[in-house]
Amino acid sequence: MATSCYRPMILFFISLLGISSLMATSAGNFYQDFDITWGDGRAKILENGQLLTLSLDKASGSGFKSKNEYLFGKIDMQLKLVPGNSAGTVTAYYLSSLGSTHDEIDFEFLGNLTGEPYIMHTNVFSQGKGNREQQFYLWFDPTKDFHTYSILWNPQSIIFYVDDTPVREFKNSETMGVPFPKNQPMRIYSSLWNADDWATRGGLVKTDWTNAPFIASYRNFNADQACVWSSGASSCPSNSNNSSSWITQAVLDSTSQEKIKWVQKNYMIYNYCSDTKRFPQGLPPECSLTS
Ligand SMILES: *[C@@H]1O[C@H](CO)[C@@H](O)[C@H](O)[C@H]1NC(C)=O
Ligand SMILES: *[C@@H]1O[C@H](CO)[C@@H](O)[C@H](O)[C@H]1NC(C)=O
Ligand SMILES: *[C@@H]1O[C@H](CO)[C@@H](O)[C@H](O)[C@H]1NC(C)=O
Fold first, then answer.
1. Is 257 among the domain residues?
2. Is residue 12 part of a domain?
């Protein structure tokens, strides 16, 4: 088993040498890039593929997934979240592989009463293990306009961005015995569903169905800088081997570090790495790296 882990990485570096060229092309056609997976007509692709909407009512939510699988990438999506009284609703946008030892990189947006703040919940699963939540308020109203939510995933790091501001970094700490997502290709998934048993103020505020249908909107998907997994190999864009590319980026530059500190100081409301009650035997090893 141990040796098989290295195979995708080798294939990955082979593809960096320019052997294959099956890469994601032009940005943003939802017909081309995504399949609607559930919701019985509640998920819609509109405006010639430039806009996608998910809808939730008392009977059902809805969701979609990417046609491609990716192994590493910089992936952007613009979302406009459910406006008004969105309490009880959750809009999830994430990357995930399949199976009980899956990897996953999550954004989840927990709705709220009109005028009260959404919570942006993030998590990273590696080899089936999560429990790495960080939660944030946002510095804008995410229901008024579209904002860009990005995941940069390379062999060194996973970085979550909101409008180009990094909000979270999960570093590869395999040297400390912490598995890192790097061998399992992932698809992009999104869904809008009712989670009023836990989402808003821990489940105290329930979904008000008189406001249904609840609608979240998506546009400007961009995976031009992502490596598409196909026939057992990952194909990266040809410019991804240069030193300023996302794929080789090992650390955040100083401007980005200032930004991530600003977000974490002013907007972070939960960090598993500070939750000593939850980890009485000691915080997870990677927490010694987290700023
Ligand atoms: C990047 O790959 C191209 C071929 O795709 C090659 O010509 C170039 O030398 C490579 N650059 C580096 C820095 O490895
Ligand atoms: C909703 O608003 C309340 C009150 O401001 C706040 O405590 C809570 O964190 C907000 N977000 C969610 C998702 O509960
Ligand atoms: C290197 O990659 C960066 C980021 O993707 C890109 O902006 C730049 O044009 C690339 N440079 C070359 C020489 O390919």
1. yes
2. no
Q: Which residues contact 204 (CB under 8 A, 6 or more apart)?
A: none
Q: Which domain holds residue 59?
A: 30-289
The reply to whether 286 belongs to the active site is: no
Location of structure tokens 């510095």? 139
* Active-site hit among 47, 69, 108, 116: 108
Res 22 pLDDT > 70: no
Average pLDDT over the chain, rounded to whole? Answer: 90
* Residue 255 belongs to some domain of the structure: yes
Q: What's the domain count of the chain? A: 1
Q: Is the CB of 241 under 6 A from ligand 1?
A: yes
Q: What angle do CA 241, 245, 246 make, to 5 degrees?
A: 115
Hey, is 278 helix, strand or coil?
coil
**Does 104 participate in catalysis according to the annotation?**
yes
And the tokens for 180? 């890192």
Query: pTM here?
Result: 0.87
Tell me: the pLDDT tens digits for 6-21? 444 444 444 444 433 3
Residue that has been written with the tokens 């090992």 in this structure: 250
3-state DSSP assignment of residue 113: coil
pLDDT digit string (tens) for 183-201? 999 999 999 999 999 999 9
